[in-house]
Specification:
alpha+beta; two-stranded antiparallel sheet; 8 strands; about 40% helix; signal
Length: about 180
């Protein structure tokens, strides 16, 4: 009985936008896709579904990850975009699950994160529909977003990637400023 009361007290103490935490200590969202973490297969599946591959790197206890999940990813339109237009694969910055990089190298999550030179969480990596053979995830990414950002920045980044802004002559910062100014 005491355990039930303690669990209820903890549940009631969580903020309204609290994100679910998995057994691995990372945030879980319905728009995340559980895969074998073979980025080539994930990209092929995402592209076949008409979605864009996004990898999110997080770590246990990350206060900025919590901020993103509770304040940004919980926004209904952002959650809908992530669930409909993106194929989101989560990696644990210090995890041991095997990942297959686009270049075919098999390594742990933590080794992949080191290989790609990633230092922040949360970190979002966005990929094109096709990645040339032999290219690493770090080199293939069309956009990398390190750290926590607000809803407008995140919303605009998601749109910029879907619109393939990275292939044009308007950098994200200019796109973002134009969108903030009603353009």
């Amino acid at each position: 009985m005491r355990h039930w009361i303690a669990a209820l007290a903890v549940g009631l103490a969580l903020p309204a936008g609290a994100a679910e935490i998995g057994d691995d200590g990372l945030h879980k969202a319905p728009w995340m896709v559980e895969t074998f973490k073979d980025l080539r297969e994930d990209l092929a599946e995402a592209t076949a579904e008409g979605r864009r591959l996004m990898v999110i790197v997080e770590q246990r206890g990350c206060i900025y990850c919590t901020k993103m999940h509770e304040e940004v990813f919980s926004q209904p339109d952002i959650a809908a975009t992530l669930g409909t237009d993106y194929f989101v694969v989560q990696l644990n910055m210090f995890g041991d699950v095997e990942v297959v990089d686009f270049d075919g190298e098999i390594l742990s999550e933590k080794a992949a994160v080191r290989k790609w030179g990633l230092n922040f969480t949360p970190l979002l990596l966005f990929f094109p529909e096709e990645v040339p053979e032999g290219v690493t995830a770090e080199d293939a990414a069309v956009a990398t977003v390190p750290g926590a950002f607000g809803a407008e920045t995140t919303r605009n980044m998601l749109s910029w990637v879907l619109e393939k802004g990275y292939a044009g002559d308007e950098p994200f910062q200019v796109y973002h400023a134009r969108k903030l100014n009603g353009g």
